[in-house]
Amino acid sequence: MAPHFEYIPHPRVAERKAAPPVKVRDERRLDHPNPVVRFNARFGLVITVVVGTMWCAYLFAIVALISLPSAISSHNLTILIAWVSSNFLQLVLLPIIIVGQNIQAKAADKRAEDTYKDAEAVLHEAAQIQAHLQVQDKAIDDILARLSRLGPVAAG
Question: Whole-model pTM?
Answer without folding.
Answer: 0.60
